[in-house]
Amino acid sequence: MDAMTLMSTDRLLAFAAMSFLLILVPGPSVLFVIGRALAQGRRAALTTVVGNTLGAYALVVAVALGVGSVVERSIVVFTTLKLVGAAYLIYLGVRAIRQRRSLQTVFEKGDGDDADPGAGTLRTLREGFVVGVANPKTIVFFAAVLPQFVDREAGHAALQMLLLGLVFNVIAVASDSVWGLAASTARTWFARSPRRLAMVGGTGGLAMVGLGVTVAVTGRKE
Predict the structure, then answer these.
(1) Can you give the pLDDT at residue 98?
(2) Is 107 within 8 Å of 194 (Cβ atoms)?
(3) Residue 216: its pLDDT value, please?
(4) What does the pLDDT look like over 6-60, one tens digit per residue?
(5) What confidence tens digit (pLDDT) does each residue in 145-169 have?
């Protein structure tokens, strides 16, 4: 069964828009990519993006296989996941706002990593994977939001979630790559004033709070 035949274009576009909003918010994966870019340059940043993406899709597979059958049957589970996820997104946003000045540690951790930028490619890929698979923002999004876009009447919920996860990751690769390339290009500009990262963190926190509120008040109600 082709997953594309199970989902309407409107549903896919709505999920893509929601994914884009979440991905724009600088979270652990984005900050890790920025840190690698600032410390080691473009190659390390893009390798980290690949690792993050593999980790995120591993989460998609886990959610699809573990939640797929429940998604087809339980509205109660949908509602619970949505509200818990929305609350946690708001919590993460508030915490990001409160801790925005701690982003200066991106520089402190990366200052000594320039010696051999090509030798640690596999390690960078592995570390990117770990950050991607352990990213709480992504975990919450896949567990709480991904099922909301599944067409229960069409069946094959797991297959639909795998398709939606692929859409999410394509957007994430593009967005994270832009972050990484921009940070590697602007290393000197950031180095002159690490406080600029605090502004990024604060803005991202506000966006995450807004996303959490959106998740709480929207979604399927059938």
Answers:
(1) 78
(2) yes
(3) 76
(4) 678 888 999 999 899 888 877 777 877 877 787 677 888 899 899 999 989 998 9
(5) 888 888 877 778 888 889 999 999 9
- Give me the count of residues in the chain: 222
User: What CA–CA distance (Å, rounded) separates 157 from 68?
Assistant: 5
**Residue 152: φ, ψ to 5°:** -60, -35
Please list, in sequence order, all residues whose beta carbon lies within 8 angstroms of the beta carbon of residue 146, skipping any fewer than 6 positions away: 60, 63, 161, 164, 165, 168
Q: Which residues, including other chains, have CB under 8 Å from residue 178's CB and lie 6 or more apart?
A: none
Distance CA 89, CA 134 (A): 15
Cβ-Cβ contacts under 8 Å for 60 (sequence gap 6 or more): 142, 146, 161, 162, 164, 165, 166, 168, 169
Query: What pLDDT sits at residue 107?
Result: 53
> 143, 67 in Cβ contact below 8 A?
yes
At 216, list the tokens: 């709480």
Cα end-to-end span (Å), the chain:
25
Q: Can you tell me which residue has the tokens 């991905």?
A: 23
